[in-house]
Design a protein that fits this description.
Bound molecules: zinc ion
Number of domains: 3
Order of helices and strands: EEHHHHHHEEHHEH
Largest sheet: 3 strands, antiparallel
Strand order of the largest sheet: 3-4-5
Oligomer: single chain
Helix content: 40-55%
Radius of gyration: 22 Å
Amino acid sequence: MGIEAEGIINGLTPGEAFSVLVPFEETGILDRWGVTSVRVVIDDGRNISNDQRRKVFALIGDITDWLVAPGRGKRTRAEYETLREMHLLYIIDLLGQGKYEDAELVRRQLTAHYCEILDLAPFSLSNVDMATARDFIDWLVELCVEYGIPCIDTLLNRCEDIGRYLYACVAHRRCAICGKKADIHEVETVGMGRNRQKMHHSGQLVQPLCRAHHNEVGKIGQADFDNKYHLEGIRLDENLCEILGWKK
Ligand SMILES: [Zn+2]
């Protein structure tokens, strides 16, 4: 994560650039690490919106329902491993106190995990900044995609960054609309009869879709389908080709 330092804007060329002065005594570190560039986060002072807060509660609600679903008292080894990865293993025995209490427990635990990963101070949903809220929502969405957690609403309506969501759906082969197991649907059909093993896929426009939604594209056509679900495609990069086992 690196070191955080705050600075002040001390020069501004309209329409071009600004410079920042960052008081920082440990300049030796910059030398040692060979640091030549830094990233500046512009704090626009905006806090989490009501819409974002609703998304967090909806996602946490679905994750909680998944955790306490009937029959989940008898978990397989793999399911325990999943819970351990999600840092939720140690709270499952505490659940069952009521819907609201359970969700609060899960929210606090997942927030703590997220802050730990990013080395952030714990935050409250009452006043966290908008950018952190946005990233936290997309992180929760990724968890749901990765672990196949059933959600009441399509995650298309929950995610903040649709590109990031589609990327996760392709990587985990989940339908971008309903979350079921998906195949990778090629939006731009590359000439029939070409050998899939031999052709390059990097840069290809795709949508991860389950069989039912794939069939719907065939029925109503790509343009109407995209309009209906407000869905766009995603272009495969080399990393996704690698994950899918497709030639780059
Ligand atoms: Zn689907």
